[in-house]
Amino acid sequence: MAKKRRSKTNNTKYEKKSHSSNNHGTKKVPSYKNNNVIKKKKKQYQQHLLCLTMSVCINIFLYYFIIHFSSTQCFTRIVPATPNHGLTKIPVVKMISDAKLKEHVRKGIPIVVTNQMNSWPAMKRWVDLNYFKEACPYYQFDNVSFVDYINYVVEIENYVKKHLTPQEAMNFEFEDSFYFSHNEKLFLECPKLWNDVKKFALVRNRVSKPTSFIGFIARYIVSIFETQDLPSSVIWDDWIQAVTWIGPPGSKTGLHYDDDPMSILYQFKGEKKIRIWSPDQSKNLYPETYCTENSEYGTRFSKIEDIDNKKVIRRFFPKFQNATALEYVLKPGEMIYIPSGWWHHVEVLSTSVSVAARGYTVCEGLSFMPNFVINYLHLNGVIDGEGFCITPSYLKAHV
Q1: Which of the residue ranges 138-152, 244-258, 287-301 would you say has the lowest mean pLDDT?
Q2: Over the range 64-103, which residues count as b (16 or more CB within 10 Å of their CB) and which as e?
Q3: What CATH number belongs to 79-398?
């Protein structure tokens, strides 16, 4: 009996020991605790999934917002429901106020102003092109002396006066002819020219200035992407730009549109024939799939090189015949506001000097940020961004 009890005792100890060992190796957790752990992990997973989904949605929203924001130029680009807003000619007024101009910008309607520039010094000084040799004696562009170019244009002007009619001059092929066009640096190199045009006050009145807090922050952001095309002197000044054209009769600027929300072309000398088309007609104007130069930030040309060659138009660009243009001959002392996104073609009728003043509010300036970033990366060799520009939604089906 004692042996049996000992045996029983030993077995009990063995069983207890064995049971204790099992508890230490595989600790049994009550079922209600397992459920809590599973629920906690499931909740964490759901939270992570929600955060990821929200992050993706926010990024998609920001991407499309930036694209739309940029392609509409801070929502100042208006696409008419009917070609040219139903206009048969460009509205013409003698004078225009800031409020009236703002209304035309808001509605996206072009306008010509005939008497606003009468008292400007440039109207007298710039008639004689030799004035520019005194104002800008050291400026060079494309390895050409600006003084030499002025001499060249003056020589052509004198020849035309003596030997050609205006129509003959339009079709005459001048030797080594080239056009001082879309020059953004002349006013930077020759700042005294700003006084000749009264600093383009009509445009300057609405632009972003570095003295405001928001203006300072915006400039700080833009300055991160400073390049030779976007120098510090431009970033930290009033956001206004003067773009100059000087050339002989027959010079042309091909069919294109610009992204600039506010651009007024001022005519100081000679005449220019201007034809414009509203952006809703883009499908008939054969837009290129790319922009010409990064530095122009959104200037897109048409595939049509000569819009007056009817034979070529009929054969290769038949839809162009369905496009309706508004036409105006811009005379000395006149200016024209061309809304953002409107296509235009410009032809010099007589020796011409004109300047486009372009101004940007903080919102409008920041709408060019994608271009600034791409151009910065392109010029620093990070990417090949040649020809980059954002395609507006109404244009996507036609490029």
Answers
A1: 287-301
A2: eeeeebbbbbbebbbbbeebbbeeeebeeeeebeeeebee
A3: 2.60.120.650
